[in-house]
Write a structure and sequence with these properties.
alpha+beta; 2 helices; elongated
């Protein structure tokens, strides 16, 4: 059983669209379109499980870069969370934003204890 990652999908792509796309390459076990927990809207990627590894390899070769819904799909073998690199765009931790003390700027710690002043209205 191979799990395939399908990325860069249009948010309107449905399970039926993916079934029609992958069916010519072999049997499909399951399709999971990932949605946002808060809004329920599609996040633009999905996982397609195919029981036969050879058929999955053919699907990857044929569909990676294929246009669907105005977007070029990214299709590859899904990797478990532990195997993925941690430096992608989703990692927001660490790293300053140019406000370090060493450059003459101020850090947030300088103001943590101060009382906040009310803001003036903008009109």
């Amino acid at each position: 059983m191979k799990s395939l990652f399908v990325g860069n999908m249009s948010f309107q792509t449905t399970e039926a669209d993916l079934t029609a796309l992958f069916q010519p390459f072999g049997q499909i076990g399951r399709i999971h379109i990932v949605t946002d927990r808060e809004t329920g809207r599609a996040r633009g990627f999905a996982f397609v499980e195919m029981p036969n590894d050879a058929e999955a390899a053919k699907a990857i070769a044929a569909l990676d870069g294929k246009e669907l819904g105005g977007r070029n799909l990214k299709v590859n073998e899904a990797r478990p969370k532990a195997d993925r690199p941690r430096d992608g765009g989703g990692n927001r931790g660490g790293g300053g934003h140019g406000h370090g003390r060493g450059r003459g700027g101020f850090s947030n710690e300088d103001y943590r204890e101060s009382a906040r002043q009310p803001r003036e209205p903008r009109w």
